[in-house]
Write a structure and sequence with these properties.
With 171 residues, the protein is mostly helical. The protein contains 7 helices and no strands.
């Protein structure tokens, strides 16, 4: 007997939940076997039915992949709002339990997420821009560009090829 769409949906949602907790294929196979043996819905094997095959389990896992992909198709703006809301909730839970360290960690993470610690990043970028302009115009900021000095005698003593000037031609 084939599972209904509602049963498949329930199974996939359960597998997704344990998958998000880190379950791998062997863990999921064991989970399903235990649920089937206990006769728990939606895994109960109907009269005359067969246990879920590995092939079917892999199809369910593929459906969990689709659900995960759909759940993260949020815009960046929505994603940021959701993350901030989740942090507010975590902060409230930590404070209500008197867990000051967890509350501080949540606040720190929220501030990082909002870029509050990057305030001096702007100053660093501006300083780097200034240094780049200085390098473009005068060389390294700590070591001004110097023009090489050429000794006048050395320049006259040797021609471009590096060979000494030949003396007067004997003739």
């Amino acid at each position: 007997m084939k599972a209904t769409k509602a049963t498949i949906r329930q199974r996939v949602e359960e597998l997704l939940a344990i998958r998000l907790d880190g379950a791998l294929f062997p863990d999921m196979r064991q989970y399903v076997a235990e649920k089937e043996a206990a006769g728990e819905a939606p895994w109960a094997i109907p009269e005359g039915g067969k246990p879920v095959s590995e092939r079917t389990l892999w199809r369910y896992i593929a459906l969990t992949e689709k659900l995960m992909a759909e759940s993260v198709k949020e815009s960046r703006k929505k994603l940021l709002r959701r993350h901030l809301a989740q942090r507010m909730s975590l902060y409230a839970k930590a404070v209500s339990q008197g867990d000051v360290r967890a509350a501080l960690a949540v606040l720190r993470d929220e501030a990082e997420l909002q870029g509050l610690y990057d305030a001096d990043l702007y100053q660093q970028v501006e300083e780097l821009k200034r240094q780049i302009e200085e390098i473009k115009h005068s060389g390294h900021p700590d070591h001004p560009q110097r023009t090489p000095e050429i000794a006048p005698r050395a320049a006259a003593a040797a021609p471009a090829g590096g060979e000494p000037h030949p003396g007067p031609a004997a003739g």
